[in-house]
Amino acid sequence: MIFIVKDSMGDVAKDLASGTVGGVAQLVVGHPFDTIKVKLQSQPTPLPGELPKYSGAIDAVKKTVAAEGAGGLYKGMGAPLATVAAFNALLFSVRGQMETLLRSSPGAPLTVNQQFVAGAGAGFAVSFLATPTELIKCRLQAQGASATAGVTTAAVTEAGAATTAAGAATAKAVKYGGPMDVAKQVLRSEGGVRGLYKGLFPTFAREVPGNATMFGVYEYLKQYMAGGTDTSGLGRGSLMLAGGLAGGAFWGAVYPTDVIKSVIQIDDYKNPKYSGSIDAFKKILKAEGVGGLYKGFGPAMGRSVPANAACFLAYEITRSSLG
């Protein structure tokens, strides 16, 4: 029993370390794509006869770089960077412990269905960390879009009024000075800790089925390419391919729930547009059709494939090097 406990603790430590390295790789590669995704999701619905602020992902990149410089693509990275170690360490370590519970005997390979279950359990656990982190990130990413939208609206008014309105829009746009400032303001004026967990249920709806799909697809692809359950001989290219496609499967399975989560988390606390997730779903569908539930889908997929390829490769290499 002592040896089993020690071995289990050793596996947890390895998963924590490997998950941390994988998470950093994922963040560095994927954050600019995530910024564009959130900007597209959070842009206001144009009035009849008006054009949307961003015509698409490429347009959003161009306008973001023009207005904020290349650093604008990494806005909001402080929050996930500060927690990426904990998030991915938790994700991979819970998944590892779920694998231990699901194995028929020590060291036995898991089936694809068992990996789905392990991924679902890991997704449930990380939702509690993901919700406040995502709320902070989304608000920082969205406020840049709000700034330009405010200035654009002001520009069509009389010159004097336009200047005043633009200044007000800019002041409103810099409501948050950084990740810690978002946390402080939410804790102070939006119901304390509960305010940081705004969007918890749509986060569950994203993370549980999303991670179940991702880890299940990852294992399926590895076994398919290896020709069996022993995947230890796969090369780096195969691991990157499996990881990238698994990440794409994550978003393909749950993307509308991410849109709902984002609009809920950036919604005004005092004058909310949405009363909850179901209300957000209905209003988006009514105003924008099914396409409204897939705003930013291109950047999300563009981010997910290379970011998860980097994440899984870094995880596997680190895990293997630790023995």
TrEMBL record:
<dbReference type="GO" id="GO:0031966">
    <property type="term" value="C:mitochondrial membrane"/>
</dbReference>
<comment type="similarity">
    <text>Belongs to the mitochondrial carrier (TC 2.A.29) family.</text>
</comment>
<dbReference type="InterPro" id="IPR050567">
    <property type="entry name" value="Mitochondrial_Carrier"/>
</dbReference>
<feature type="repeat" description="Solcar">
    <location>
        <begin position="13"/>
        <end position="101"/>
    </location>
</feature>
<keyword id="KW-0496">Mitochondrion</keyword>
<protein>
    <submittedName>
        <fullName>Mitochondrial carrier domain protein</fullName>
    </submittedName>
</protein>
<keyword id="KW-0812">Transmembrane</keyword>
<keyword id="KW-0677">Repeat</keyword>
<keyword id="KW-0472">Membrane</keyword>
<dbReference type="InterPro" id="IPR023395">
    <property type="entry name" value="MCP_dom_sf"/>
</dbReference>
<dbReference type="InterPro" id="IPR018108">
    <property type="entry name" value="MCP_transmembrane"/>
</dbReference>
<keyword id="KW-0813">Transport</keyword>
<dbReference type="GO" id="GO:1990575">
    <property type="term" value="P:mitochondrial L-ornithine transmembrane transport"/>
</dbReference>
<keyword id="KW-1133">Transmembrane helix</keyword>
<dbReference type="Pfam" id="PF00153">
    <property type="entry name" value="Mito_carr"/>
</dbReference>
<dbReference type="GO" id="GO:0000064">
    <property type="term" value="F:L-ornithine transmembrane transporter activity"/>
</dbReference>
<feature type="repeat" description="Solcar">
    <location>
        <begin position="110"/>
        <end position="224"/>
    </location>
</feature>
<feature type="repeat" description="Solcar">
    <location>
        <begin position="234"/>
        <end position="321"/>
    </location>
</feature>
